[in-house]
Every structure is written in C-alpha cells, then in structure tokens.
Amino acid sequence: MADSAVSIVLVRPALLGTYGDGGNALVLAVRLGRRGIQADVVLLDGNQPLPRASDLIVLGGGEDGAQEAVADDDVLRHSLTLAVAAGAAVLAICGGFQLLGDRFQVGAGRSIAGFGLLDCTTDRLSERAVGEVVADSALPGLEVPLTGFENHAGRTLLGAEATPLGLVSHGVGNGDGGGEGAVQGRVIGSYLHGPVLARNPALADSLLAHVVGPLPPLAEGPVTRLRSERLAAARGRRVRRH
Amino acid sequence: MGSWERRATVGAAAIARLAGGASRRLGREGHTITGRVFLALAPPSGARALARRGRSALVSGTNGKTTTTALIARALGEDIAFNASGSNLIGGLHSALVERPHASTAVLEVDEAALPAALALVQPDVVALLNLSRDQLDRMHEVRRLAELWREALATYEGVVVANADDPLVTWAARSCADVRWVGAGQPWLADATACPACRAVIVVADGTWRCSGCRLRRPVTGAGPVVPPTGLPGRCNEANAAMAVAVVEEMGGQVDPAAWAAIDSVAGRYGRGVLDGRELRLLLAKNPAGWREMMPVLVPGRPLVVALNARVEDGTDPSWIWDVPFEQLAGARLVCAGERAADLAVRLDYAGIEVDIEPDVGAAVARHPRGPVDVVANYSAFRAARSLCHG
Predict the structure, then answer these.
(1) Is B56 within 8 Å of B124 (Cβ atoms)?
(2) What are the residue boundaries of the structural domains of chain A, listed by start?
(3) Model ipTM?
(4) How far apart are the C-alpha atoms of B244 and B79, rounded to whole Å?
(5) Is the pLDDT of residue B35 over 60?
(6) Which of A120, A152, A170, A193 does the annotation list as catalytic?
C-alpha cells in the first residue's frame, strides 16, 4: 500500500442509502484509522465514475425505483467492472447485492440486468423477509456467527462461481434453502443491515485485510455487548417458536 | 341507518368508554381499547355515522402529526373530537370519535399507512399532508410506496388537500387531487426523494426549489402564504407544523388566536419539562433521521444528554437508521445511551468518536449526570418511558 491512503468509495449514497448501510464505509475508515492507517471515504454521487484507484467499494440498499436507476447507470457499471478487475474489494448490501448479480426483479415481475459481478440471480420471495438474522460464517478464517437485520422481498439463487457468505441459522437470508449472501473473489453480497460491518467487526477486518494485509486486533468497545444481545434475541425467538 | 342501529351504536359507544376508563384506571393508556371495543360491538353503519362530523380534518405525514393536530385543535375551540394521545391507527381514531360522540368538529392525526382507510371512514373536509421520509421501514418497506398509497386514495377524495410543496413525495401524492392548497413548509430531509416517484429520474434540488430531470413533476408555485403566529415550540420543524396548521384552520373556516398559540410550549409531552432528583429534564422526541436532523439545532451545546432508543413494533424493529443520523455533530457531548437498544446506539456513537456510558433504564441514565439541566432525546416508546419519569 506504500504511503497512499486507503480509498473507500460509497457508491451512489443518494440512491442506495435507505437502510443506514452507509455506516459500513464509516466502520471501515474508523477501523483503519484506529490502527494508524489513513483512509479517505469518497461519496460517489451524480454520475461520477469510480476512481481507478478504489480499494474498497461499498454499496447499500435502496428502493426499487432507485435500484433500477443505478442499474441504468452505464458509467458506474463500466467503472465498477474495471475496479473489480483491478483488485478492489466490494461489499454490497440488499438492493446493492441484487444489483451486482446477473439479473434481479423489481415490482410485480420485471427482470432487470444486473452488473454481473456476482454469479447469482434474484426473483421474488413469496413473502417479504423482515427480521433478525443469524448466519454461521462460511468465509474462511471468519469463525464467529454473523448478525444483522433483513428487510427484502428478493430470493437470490447462486450459480457455480459464487458461494454463500453464511449459512442461516435464524431468518431467511437468500431464501434459497439456507444461504445468506454471496462471495466471489473479493466481491461480497449480503442481505444484512445493521449495518453489517458495525455488528460484525470481524467481517470488516477480513475485508480490510484484502487491502492492507493482516491487521492487529482492536480492543472492541460496546459491540461485544451488542452482538451478545442480538444473537440472544434472535435465538430466543427461535426457541419460543418451536 | 335504522333506529336499532342508532341504539346499538350509542350502546356500543357507552360500553367502549367504560372499557377505556377501566383500562386507564388499571394504569394503561386505554386509548386503543375504547376504539377496539366499539368496533367489535357497533354496527358498521353506526361506526361510519359516528365518524362523519360537521367539519373535520385529517393530518398525516412522517413527522409533526401530533403537533400540527394539536395546533389545529387549539385554534378551533373546545367542541372537538381529537386524538390528543397520538393513537393514530384506525382503532385510535375510533377511540377519539367515541370519546366525543356529539362534537361537531373532528381533527385527527393518522398514521401514514392508515390514511386510505381513514379517508374512507371520516370523509374529511380537509387533509393535511406534512412530509414523507424513512421511518419504521420494517413495517412501511418503502417510502415511495406510501406516497403511492396516498396518491391512489386521494384520487377519489373530494375535499381540500393542504400539502407541503417542498416535499416531492407529498407533491406527487397530492397531484392526484383536484383541490390542493400548496404550502411551502420546507423539507430539509430529501434523501428519500432522490429518485422521482413518478418516473424514477433524478430530482434536482437547487435555489429553494426542486424539479424532476425526467418528467414534468416540479415544486408547485406557492403564494405568499398565510401569516403564521409564533408558537412557544422550538425549532424549524415547528414553524413548518404551524404553517400547515394555519392553512388547515383557514380551510375549515376558523382563525388562530395568537395568544393561545404563543402559550403552547409542549405537545403530548414533547418539549415538556420535569425534575428528577435535581436534574431538570427537557423531553425531546426524535424517531427517525429526518426528525433528528431537525432536533440537532434544538439541543443546547454542552448540556448533558440522555439518548434513549427502543425498537419495539411501534418504533420499527430495525434501528439501523441511527447510522443516517450525523451524531458526529455531538462531538464532545456528555452522553448516556439508554433504552432497550442502548448498545446499538453506543456502537454508532463509538464510531462517531463519542465516548458514552450505557444504562438501559432511562431514569438511571439521567442519574448518571450531575444535577442541573439534562436533555433527554428518545424515540417513540422510549419517550413514553421518559415521560412517565416526570409524572412521578
């Protein structure tokens, strides 16, 4: 990384920023800063292309109309493809996750071409998935369970090139019979809000490690309490249901 | 409606009021019980008849419903059915109507998603549409969808709409209606109207106005607007609420008494004051990012803060929205995180670089601060807990 700051790009926050997912960019920047590594957060609005030197690219969730507007954005499509080919790591949440697949569906049944950076397609769940999610991580080196909040109507089916980010133990996730999210190379998709990196600092650090290499652990503050509360709340509800 | 239906309705209302009263004596709020019992017992034609008053107004929107409704009610006098408690689902509306069965005027705040049903029930003379922004997305899902629900319901509505011209979602919803009075009430939070609700192109905001870059939707022209007497409530948002309220009062043939409005310095406990163990509390409600944006300038710099967050069904069960609040502006504040989701708040503030204590109990959180003034900012159900502290 030599001496230049790590570049974290939040993609189209005005359109893909409905569920607080912009917090993922803040979490990444602060966790670098606390280790003495400088980071710049770039808010990529309007129709600016992604800078060629983007290290970490973050997309959030948005409403159907906004998601469709981003899908039509050829400047973004082209520059994002180049940045991924150049080795950038990507985290895309909910609508952003669907957008990075091959196709996704909006409204009653219109199918729209995604960016094709994740080998997956999204159609509709029979019932909207809303609630706490717990998933056992399927990411090598990430041993702790993932916690988050899902709020989506998409069912995402993974192709051969992608593997799930986690295996759902509570909640719906991809709605494909047990998977949550997708991983393909350095591109990660997930349905988890919270934001996901605020609730799962180990996932944040594994993304950062792609860019800056292995990192020393940080003294975690209130997130330890938050994680145990959320995991207990989700599991408690599951026990009562059975 | 036949005479047995009228008698059945009167009887149902009497029983419902008794049930509500009993519930309140048991220490519950009782506002929804009254409506629920009434709905279970009264014939539907009787319930509809009870909802039709000589003159009536509905008030809906994400923020400011309770305050705007209270301002309108204060201007229109005593003989009013109005849901002062803020119970704004259909059951709460029925409660307010049953409590004042003979009032000639009804002024009711309505939950955004319940507006279509409330329009059909009350058939109001005036509907005020304040603003739409992200709130309780676990229940509402999409803000644009709410605007669409309003637009569809208003297409067959025959009364007057008073609408905030500065909110593109409200404007689009109100455009389906023939008789609209546009008020420039302001809407600093436009993050949920970045894509045009009509055509999905980008909304361009500049020079105090807005327009769609793809279709003809644009900010409607507003006149000079009515004279808005000041209230005793702080903040830009309450000036906006007052401007909307004046327009509604005028449309209903009433007039605001400036002295009465100036005396209003709290509404349903919001901006209310209380003392707890030598701490002088000011109670503030902020339940979504747009509301917090309005709240920041109302806070007194340097004054100790308790921020209380719950995530019950009535709050929205996903508090991720706190990441859309610029808590960085509170840098240096002495702050205790309270409520059932205090830990979520503490993580957010940690990343904002603000050191905090966690104390879920609001009263105990207040006691962590030294004696003197303390601002308590809470979301919906946490606010109820904060308010009960001041009642002793």
Answers:
(1) yes
(2) 6-241
(3) 0.95
(4) 21
(5) yes
(6) A193
